[in-house]
Amino acid sequence: MTALAELTRIYTDRAAAARGGPVYGYVGADVPVEQLTAAGVLPVRLWGDPAGDTAPGDRYLGKGLDPVARSVLTRLLAGAYGTLDRVVVSRDCEASLRLFYALRELRRVEPELDLPEPYLVDVLHLPHRTTTRYVRARLEQFRDRLHDWTGTTADLPGAIARHDEQRRLLAEAAELRRAVPARLTGTEFLAVAGAGTVLPVTEHLDLLRRLLAEAADLPEHTGRRIFLTGSGHDTPEVYRALEGAGHLVVGEDHDWGDLLHLRQVGTGTLTALAERYQHNGPTAQRATTRARAAHTAAAARACRAEALVGYARRGDEAPPWDFPAQRAALPELPAALLERQEYGRIDLEGIR
Amino acid sequence: MRTRSLASAAAAGRYQREWFAGLRERVAAGEPLALVNADVPQEIFRAMDIPYVVSQWWASLVAAKQRSAHYLELVRERGYPDYTEQYNSLTLGAAFDPEPENGPWGGLPAPSLVVADATGDVTRKIFDLWGERPGTTFYALESAAENEVPVNWWDLMPHRWEEAVGTARLDLLTAELENLIRFLETTTGRVFSETRFREVMALVNEQEEWNRRARDLIARTRPVPLDVSEGIPAVMVPQWHRGTEWGRDAARSFYEEVRDRVAAGEAACPGERARLMWIGRGLWYDMDFYQRFQDEYGAVFVWSMYLAVAADGYLRYGGDPLRALAARFAAFGDQLYTPPWSAEWYVKEARLHGVDGVVHLVSDDPRGSYFTTRALETAGIPVIEIEADNVDARGYDPDSVATSIGTWLTETVLPRTR
């Protein structure tokens, strides 16, 4: 089996891959997975299911919230991720924070639901020293809490080095999709990156190295090269629909894709880790419209995109605020914004 | 005996108009103007005598004038969504108005400073857009969260706020406020006086203590001497002026008027049969709503968060005054919207006021609403949820809402009060 096939198989059945203990589920790319790896636990990023029932999640979180969070809560209630020892939640978006609050309160008032213990890592993002100090203090608390839970003495520099290598190799894989013609589709890249959110980092590194070694044998892909901005995509349905309609997603600015590998830690210290996560992004939910526009324009050009597609999921309120500036920053590209899209679906009529 | 209109509310309304006219004159004369979010520590601006307008207050005014759709259309025309966080985007619409002088009360002057905390996913973006306007600078504050919190914040906040809020959040906001003061000194040329700041902080505590007395008196008086639509302006206009002698005295006048009504046996709803609680932001475009159920059902709204959070949410004593100010705002929203704080507080307040039923406004932004409703129902208090946005009247059907509440009163609430 080729490395791409193996990565795709793992991504397609992420629940099966997320085995072996202890397993900590995590929500959002602002969770410093390096600390989890260093503590000897397997970090498994939680994802939703657009085709699944969200009624339990809707009940606790309300229907106005991003359906990804509602689906994740539904799946946690159903035990769909297997045995999770704990759930670590970040502030990557408002929906994640509400999910944390719901988990915390449900543990208090409805303990019979037997939900895993949640923990919030409150990484904030304003580009100021005051925020750096705060994030570092929060990571110190998280480090101490992990020590209490696992009893292990963490090898943080080693874990940072491995995750930095993972990001470096993912960036190389991203180049395969940016190439003309592309050697990876957007759907395939989503799987290459997504497999790494459930595998031990060393196993993902092995597969990434094999993928890059096999790159010359990968088929060429053509299609209308689009840069996808807006909501994150924790599942592949929207990418599949786009690419099934003749588009090729050559880049994106969400953290299930290219934003996952954008920034390295560099130094094996807690302060460097705090700075990496403080400046993580720029995601739609946490960055300024100006930062988003600058990033999107540069990334779309680097991808040699032929069109800009904005995708805003119903309940994910931030992306539509970015789009006017993003469109203005890329005057040479046709651009369209698809607002209030249903989870896992896309109205392709809007970009014909 | 049915009550007369509240003199303190009328006086607050007159004061607010005069104040706003004066503010427009000051800005026209070249003074700075700050537009701030409600959760921004306004006491710093007060101490430095920098005029400010609270974004949500302006939005409530626009909604009350039935102008929401106009301003949201201006937001939409520029390519931005008109369906998210209307409480802040509505005020942004004022910035896009080609005829700003046609706005309420002569229109909102262009601010030179905007200050907001980075709550949610959209607030910072909206204020960013303000900051991109010529002559306007945006200063952002973080919005931080805590893992574990003691439930009984209302007991702890006045004196043990460090324990309630947590050191990490207080360290952060205190440092941000130190920087904000330097920023304001540099950009406005105004001086921050520690002595003046302490006076402002003391005045705020005095004002909220008067509100606390009024809340306690209303809670224990049957029939209730005033309904929430009377009380909200008498509380909130002074709240936007907290830290002034006028604000403190207005809160005292409000208390004294309530006390006199109680002494005279006056009632908002003389045939009071059911005491209702309104959970959620004020329904600014339909304030008559709050009196709609009195004549037919004997049901009167005795509680809204505006007086209650003034009574419980602002008092901060002791310690370094800037850290105490940080403690007022580092977790302000949690008091109202984050369980367990919010849910347990609403139950505490419902019991204090002898509430028979709760009308719970649930918008598209349902912050902790399940847990609020659950806690109240677990405490044996009936709850009806209504779905609406508090400033965006599009899609609001007053008759349908009134019918639902009438049915609920008849079938669920009133039979329990006999």
From TrEMBL, chain B:
InterPro entries: FldB/FldC_alpha/beta
A GO term for molecular function: hydro-lyase activity
Lineage top rank: taxon: Bacteria
PANTHER family in the cross-refs: 2-HYDROXYACYL-COA DEHYDRATASE,D-COMPONENT, 2-HYDROXYGLUTARYL-COA DEHYDRATASE, D-COMPONENT-RELATED
Family: Belongs to the FldB/FldC dehydratase alpha/beta subunit family.
Protein name per its UniProtKB record: 2-hydroxyacyl-CoA dehydratase
